[in-house]
Amino acid sequence: MKDEITLKGLFEIIKSKILIIISATVLVTTAAAVITKFYISPEYTSSIKLCVVGDFDTEGGSSVSNENSTINYVKNLIETCIETLNAQDAYVQINSNLRELNASYENTNIDSSNVRIEQVGNSNVLRVTATTENAQLSYDTCQAFETMAKERVPIIGEVQIEKIDSPVLATAPSSPNMLKNCILGALIGFVVSCGIVILIEMLDNTVKDGAETARQLDILLLCEIPDFYSATERERYYEYKLNSGTGGKKRGR
């Protein structure tokens, strides 16, 4: 194993094996594209925005002291709202609402892995994102979530849910991303192939020439014996023909 290797040496190793590295990179990139295209199910995403607002009475007065305190009060309830809307019972209700929308959803089971609930900045707005393998199901899940939220949120305080942005039916899958996966595959293929090539070179103890021998052993090289080993006839080092008295037979080492 080589004790040390310089940056220039690494570059020379990569340069000498560039065809192998390129081939490995192309192979891994192709594999990533094939897996993305044929083995990863596409997913579709729809989202809806819901606003948590104060519940005002019929006389025009606020149920809290003023509008500012109402906003602050609602903001303090955002985390509670998220927990309430992300509860198991909430998903049971969502699935029930889906079946009411479409009977074909009888065996559909939406859970927390399909729905993401997040607060938009520091506002009292919630963005709900539904992701499934069916564009229509993702869209309907947002609608079912809205219905569920309007029923469940009022039980935790003097607040209610209002829709401020309707869901849109997805026309293209949100994942997987073919370009991203191919770039990632190419990067992995290049890095791994470079690493393997460099590792093999560093573990190679074969003496390449006299200069390397002199450098590694720290000796003065006076001469070198030529290699008579034939590249085309690797089973012998030299060959000669006997005199005609031998019948022209060849002998060799």
From TrEMBL:
The keyword Transmembrane applies. It comes from the Bacteria. Keywords: Cell membrane, Membrane, Transmembrane, Transmembrane helix. It is a multi-pass membrane protein. GO terms for cellular component: plasma membrane. The chain crosses the membrane at residues 18-40, 182-200. Residues 3-89 form the Polysaccharide chain length determinant N-terminal domain. It is found in: Cell membrane. Belongs to the CpsC/CapA family. This is Polysaccharide chain length determinant N-terminal domain-containing protein.
